[in-house]
Amino acid sequence: MSKEDLIAEVRAKLGDYAAENRILGYKPEFSDDNYLRAITSAIRRFNNMPPVITAYRMTKFPGGYLDTVIDGAIYYLLSKGAFKKTRNFVGIKDDGIYVNAEENINLYIKLLDFTRENFINETKEIKAAMNIESLF
């Protein structure tokens, strides 16, 4: 699968399209460079997670494990988004009413935890199966 195809897969699962991002001024939240870094990070984490250390690359990754890498890339992107939102958090108080301008930070964190757990658990299951298969 090409880099462009991988970016498109991750973008599709995340739903990061300009037309769907009204609050972001109809722009994608993440650039293609962000997606490449996220995919590279997910593959690196996948490769380095024991028990079987692997050496897959972006363009040479088994299709059966692609959903796991996509989840890992989304974890990376949500982490980036959560850090940005937390760093840029602003509360506004106007006429005695407090307005939380970034109420979705907690939702980001929940999604972050969910995708992290999925990625780790799926990777462990795949690596355990690889380990067993290597015995035969």
Care to give the gist of this entry?
With 136 residues, the chain is mainly alpha-helical. Helices cover 59% and strands 6% of the residues. The chain has one domain (3-133).
Question: Please, could you describe this protein's structure?
Answer:
With 136 residues, the chain is mainly alpha-helical. The chain has one domain. The protein is 59% helix and 6% strand. The chain contains four helices and two strands, in the order αααββα. It has helices spanning 3-14, 32-48, 66-87, 105-133; strands spanning 91-94, 97-100. Strands 1-2 form a two-stranded antiparallel ribbon. Helix 1 crosses helix 2. The longest helix is centred in the C-terminal third of the chain and has 29 residues, at 105-133. The protein is elongated, with a radius of gyration of 18 Å. The two termini are 29 Å apart.
Main attributes of the structure:
about 140 residues; mainly alpha; 2 strands; 4 helices; single chain
User: First CA to last CA: what distance?
Assistant: 29 Å
What does the largest sheet look like? 2 strands, antiparallel
* Total individual domains: 1
Mean pLDDT: 83
Provide the low-confidence segments as ranges.
none
Helix and strand composition category = mainly alpha
Number of DSSP-assigned strands: 2
Whole-number radius of gyration?
18 Å
Q: Count the helices. How many?
A: 4
What is the string of helix and strand elements? Answer: HHHEEH
- Spatial order of the strands in the main sheet? 1-2
What proportion of the residues is helical, as a percent range? 55-70%
For this entry, what is the oligomeric state of its chains?
A: single chain
Query: Strand-residue fraction?
Result: 5-15%
Q: What coarse outline follows from CA principal-axis ratios?
A: elongated
